[in-house]
Amino acid sequence: MAPPYEHVNYDFGAAAELSQALAQAVKKLHAFAGLRVKQRSHLLGESPGPNWRGAKRNVYDTAFGPQKDALDRMSDNLARLVSAVANATDDAHAVNARTH
User: Fold this and answer.
1) Which domains are delineated in the chain?
2) Are 33 and 71 within 8 A, CB to CB?
3) Average of per-residue pLDDT across 46-71
4) Average pLDDT over residues 25-54
5) I need a surface site. Which of 2, 69, 82, 96 has the fewest CB within 10 A?
């Protein structure tokens, strides 16, 4: 842990805006990932069926999984940043509360 400070200059407004923007990005990524899953289901069906068969389906389906995983990782990373901003804000509040 860092040494205690008497006071920190922390832009609480900027932190709130950053947190809000990151949280919105998380929601949008979740919505986008959900839309892609629905589109895939509509396009391909739940299991290989009459909708689309053959090599092109296999290529699409093989690429879909890693793309979904990448979107999930981005969303998880953004959620961790939201948490980190919240923790930094709480720490700044605590430091400043001790000085007043």
Assistant:
1) 12-99 (1.10.287)
2) yes
3) 82
4) 84
5) 2
**Residue that the structure tokens 């981005």 belong to:** 74
| pLDDT for the residue numbered 51 | 65
The set of residues, in sequence order, having a beta carbon less than 8 Å from that of 47 and lying 6+ positions away, is: none
Is residue 82 within 8 Å of residue 15, measured between CB atoms? no
Say how far apart CA 79 and CA 2 lie, in whole Å. Answer: 24
54 by Cβ neighbours in 10 Å (0-12 / 13-18 / 19+) ranks as exposed
**In angstroms, rounded to a whole number, what is the distance separating the alpha carbons of residues 82 and 99?**
26
Q: Say how far residue 11 (Cα) sits from the centre of its chain.
A: 23
pLDDT above 70 coverage of the chain, percent: 86
By residue count, the chain amounts to 100
| 55 CB neighbour count, 10 Å cutoff | 7
pLDDT at 25 over 90: yes
